[in-house]
Amino acid sequence: MLRTIDWKDNSVIMIDQTKLPTELVYVKFTDYTAIADAIRKLVVRGAPAIGVAGAFGLALATIQSKATTKEELINDLETAKKILFETRPTAVNLGWALEKIMAVAKQGKDISDTTNIVVNTAKRMAEEDIQINMKMGKHGSKLFENNDTIMTHCNAGALATVGYGTALGVMRATKEDGKNIKVIATETRPVQQGSRLTAFELKHDGIDVSLIPDTAVGYTMAKGLVNKVIVGADRILRTGHVFNKIGTYQVATMAKRHGIPFYVAAPLSTFDLKSNPKDVIIEQRNAHEVTHIGDKKTAPDDINVINPAFDMTPPELITGIITEAGIAKPPFDESIKKLFEAKK
Ligand code: MRU
What we know:
Order of helices and strands: EEEHHHHHEHEHEHEEEHEEHEEEEEH
Bound molecules: 5-S-methyl-1-O-phosphono-5-thio-D-ribulose
Number of strands: 16
Largest sheet: 7 strands, mixed
């Protein structure tokens, strides 16, 4: 299984996802500002992976700090937290992970104790991410049957997490439970996380995958080629509104029209129980991603571009939300509340 991000000898090792699928390259980071840059440039992407990258960024910041008192170290960490937090606004796991690290850092007795606590908590967070995905897989597998063909959008796999994946983790667990599955992956324009990452990852792991253009979602569903859909999420509200890669809303709408169950798989760290739909900032990305395919220009000069990275799928289009604590079903405001109460 691919390991997206790891801590080794006081440095962070990550797969450079911008080089996939042609090259599987690992890059080493010793500076938290370079981690911030890597998050911004999608070297590392996917909500849970960004969260762990942020935590490791703060771990590097403790090591880089020249502070001589614990108070100075906490100030340095606050600066690093701000820089890391401002990289990408939509996935809630980043803020969740940074806050968690800051809370433990404040409990350190002195500089060396604080550094140890921060590094060890970030490392534990990475290991827990894999364990959480495996638990999610066990719950989710029950929803899938032998010979299902499952559609997915974007990449919610090992590459979007530390390992195993959320939506693709559920597929892995379904296979591990002895069921045969096929996958249809959308290419996921504009930066092809579906074709570059999901198709690469599933092929790497020997899972049967077919790639379709985003525009063939309706065609494949109308032809009866899809039994179920499963995607990941960047942020889920207490009402069950799901923010995920741009195009998810269209896939969910099509699934509803064709009576195909539409599932979301995400850890509890992806839930934002405070915000309302209008509060969530949808990241707008560079126009170049739309006006070019690679380096080739595919649009006229000076064209206006709208390039949102995420959209919102309303709860009425969602059949179930799979988490490590169980599966939430509609009405989501009640079932999500119960999942969090059970966690306490
Ligand atoms: O822009 P990205 O590639 O970071 O977007 C990623 C997604 O939208 C994923 O589907 C989501 O983070 C879930 S990952 C487990």
